[in-house]
């Protein structure tokens, strides 16, 4: 079952957003498991995560995507979240993002047994190119997140702008995760509620139905 799920994730995400124009099919990313399940190493198309500040203290962090190999290659699809040692518990929530092009992965994460806020995981909403650098995601920790063991990392899988649906390989990449440090406090929840663009702070928790990787 594990290998079947891995193969499904790769097949679905690596055809980019042509086959899945309204979002990634899964809730978790594991580069080693994906590579083993698909029997080849993912290709580095140059996508990188930019996180500011990495030592956030009690501040929110801003996340952007860049490309160190091809600055003209924008991206179409993404799966994005922050997690600690427990990769099935996605931390914090995204309080500011472009709701036209992205949405919270709430139902899929809930159905797969992940724990987190309704907006703790983001994916794309359409196959339109998203501009590198100027597309920003603001992530804010929740007061309970400090009790979760670290290290805390930002994770992303990105689908680039392929030329055609038949392009092989489609420019998808599991991006190197970036470490972040934060101190969650109650006032951050109040501030994020005032600026929330994602539609709520409800949390989901259910028993896992199967491996999500």
Distance between the termini: 10 Å
Secondary-structure class? alpha+beta
Q: Average pLDDT across residues?
A: 77
Q: What's the level 1 CATH class?
A: Mainly Beta
- Major sheet, described briefly? 6 strands, mixed
Helix content: 10-25%
Contiguous runs where pLDDT drops below 50 for at least 5 residues: 1-19, 190-213
Number of separate strands? 13
CATH architecture: Sandwich
Count every helix, treating DSSP H or I runs of 4 or more residues as helices.
Answer: 5
Per DSSP, what share of the residues sits in E-state strands of 2 or more residues?
25-35%
Integer count of domains: 1
Sum up the overall morphology in one term. Answer: globular
How are the strands of the largest sheet arranged?
2-12-11-4-9-7
CATH topology: Immunoglobulin-like
CATH homologous superfamily placement: Immunoglobulins
